[in-house]
Amino acid sequence: MTTREKPWHGVMVATALPLREDLSVDEDRYAEHCRHLVEQGCDGVVPNGSLGEYQTLTPGERARVVETAVAAIGGDRVMPGVAAYGAAEARRWAEQAAEAGCQAVMLLPPNAYRADERAVLGHYREVAKAGLPIVAYNNPYDTRVDLVPSLLAELHAEGLIAGVKEFTGDVRRPYEIAELAPGLDVLIGSDDVVLELALSGAVGWVAGFPNALPASCVALYRAATEGDVATALPLYRALHPLLRWDAKVEFVQAIKLSMDVAGRYGGPCRPPRVPLTPEHEAAVRVATEKALAGGLR
């Protein structure tokens, strides 16, 4: 385990949420999963992200997920997603995170419509009133709002964000962000560009596949951020058939299936997500079994 300068640094796992067969939340199993990830070298967890199916949770379930993670591994290791349709609701989730003991939150831009820059600024200003450092989450594919480097620079200059989870997959972005917003922490947001963004200077990884193969993903991240390409590249090649699922529509189902194959409980998803097609299920199984046979864990 490395010493982190800030609570959003390092490998922060966007946790899959274990659901029972009746689709109720298994809080005990979730607590065990959070502890397992830290024991395997991960630095913390990000509950209530898309991988955690937050959109399908009741308010009570969503709050308990955060509280469960904090009780399991400590608030300094928990950075909840606080996305919501309105800024007022997102602020309330940030306040709930603070009350639970968290030290940072992750926030999408407005995601109910294609917001312009004024709306984005207003959204982050409102949530910043909760008093916790905010890591912006740039996912223009799902939100239709692109937090381009110039807009990130404006948000950072106003003191509204401390970092950004960069999910575009554009490996050129970190360099422009560093030029326009010196001091803004870049976190890797898409698993299948972890090597490229780590080498560009990223200080964290909001990661999906450590849910299934935490030790190997941590080893990849540590080697990449240390510039040890000789160690990182073989791991990256071996993991990439799985890592690329993080950017696919079926990423939640794929990661949960990979967890099941690896001996960790993934379990079902809530609607509207549907099971993988037989072809996709076979591809994930084969890739996971190959990784395990190669000694990845």
UniProtKB/TrEMBL annotation:
<dbReference type="GO" id="GO:0008840">
    <property type="term" value="F:4-hydroxy-tetrahydrodipicolinate synthase activity"/>
</dbReference>
<dbReference type="Pfam" id="PF00701">
    <property type="entry name" value="DHDPS"/>
</dbReference>
<dbReference type="InterPro" id="IPR013785">
    <property type="entry name" value="Aldolase_TIM"/>
</dbReference>
<protein>
    <submittedName>
        <fullName>Dihydrodipicolinate synthase family protein</fullName>
    </submittedName>
</protein>
<feature type="active site" description="Schiff-base intermediate with substrate">
    <location>
        <position position="165"/>
    </location>
</feature>
<keyword id="KW-0456">Lyase</keyword>
<feature type="binding site">
    <location>
        <position position="206"/>
    </location>
    <ligand>
        <name>pyruvate</name>
    </ligand>
</feature>
<dbReference type="InterPro" id="IPR002220">
    <property type="entry name" value="DapA-like"/>
</dbReference>
<comment type="similarity">
    <text>Belongs to the DapA family.</text>
</comment>
<feature type="active site" description="Proton donor/acceptor">
    <location>
        <position position="137"/>
    </location>
</feature>
